[in-house]
Write a structure and sequence with these properties.
Oligomer: single chain
Number of strands: 13
CATH topology: Penicillin V Acylase, Chain A
Number of helices: 5
CATH architecture: 4-Layer Sandwich
Strand order of the largest sheet: 3-4-5-6-7-8-9
Number of domains: 1
Shape: globular
Length: about 260
């Protein structure tokens, strides 16, 4: 996932409002969002190559999302898949603060990443690039792409501002968040970040929704954590030319403890 925005403890009905795009090679096999047969409490998509996930929730309201951290030149393959960071947390009963502090101890086993995870009461963030310790995510509207939390890349700041406006509406819908995630407008060259991959590649990756035959937005995901112990999850998947394939909706009522 290469662009996500979320509102944490800012909405009276939804402690967490989340919208995110997963960008990945179209050739990398993955399963659409659903409950996992080997961990029935976990709801999310699944990477069929390494078995992990980029984003998932549980029936108890636990939440995890991991993004790659863009750096050049491309580093050597790490011994562990980043998707395991999210998947292992969702499978476990380990408190979020305990788990993320354990991640710090083995952070060098993974490629560059940013990780957000938590429960209905707290969210935590950690990156193995420039973040010596995990930090608790404060209430507010936050954004993350392939860098650190709230790094002001243009597509991050644009999406945070749009989410802020959506939160002012009397009714907040999944479709409104999907529209936020569908923005394919490239950023002007003068505003592009410089992550060492060259201007042409920066330009290709600059939209909120990335369209490319080889690497692009594979799915968009929306999550509402409801104040009355419910949880709504929606996923829209896309083909290599950016055409919608299907949209899946899930609703968990009465979260388990």
């Amino acid at each position: 996932m290469c662009l996500l925005v979320f509102a944490w403890k800012t909405h009276p009905d939804y402690p967490l409002v989340f919208a995110g795009n997963r960008d990945e090679l179209h050739s990398r096999s993955s399963a659409a969002a659903g409950f996992w047969h080997d961990a029935p409490q976990v709801l999310g998509g699944r990477d069929l190559q390494a078995g992990g996930t980029w984003l998932g929730v549980t029936s108890s309201g636990h939440f995890a999302v991991v993004t790659n951290y863009r750096e050049a030149p491309t580093p050597q393959k790490a011994p562990r898949s980043r998707g395991a960071l999210a998947a292992d947390f969702l499978r476990s009963d380990t408190p979020a603060d305990t788990y993320i502090n354990e991640v710090v101890k083995r952070a060098g086993d993974y490629g560059a990443f940013s990780l957000i995870l938590g429960e209905p009461t707290a969210l935590w963030y950690f990156s193995n690039r420039g973040e010596p310790e995990p930090r608790k995510v404060p209430p507010g509207i936050h954004g993350l792409s392939n860098h650190q939390l709230d790094t002001p890349w243009p597509k991050v700041t644009r999406s945070v501002a749009r989410l802020d406006l959506l939160l002012e509406r009397p009714a907040l819908t999944a479709e409104a968040l999907f529209m936020l995630l569908a923005d394919r407008t490239p950023v002007a060259d003068a505003e592009l970040p410089d992550t060492g991959i060259g201007v042409e590649r920066e330009r290709q990756l600059s939209p909120v929704f990335v369209t490319h035959q080889i690497y692009g937005t594979r799915c968009s995901s929306v999550i509402f954590l409801e104040a009355d112990d419910g949880l709504r999850f929606a996923e829209r998947r896309f083909d290599p030319v950016g055409q919608s394939l299907e949209t899946r909706h899930f609703h968990i009522t009465g979260r388990t403890s």
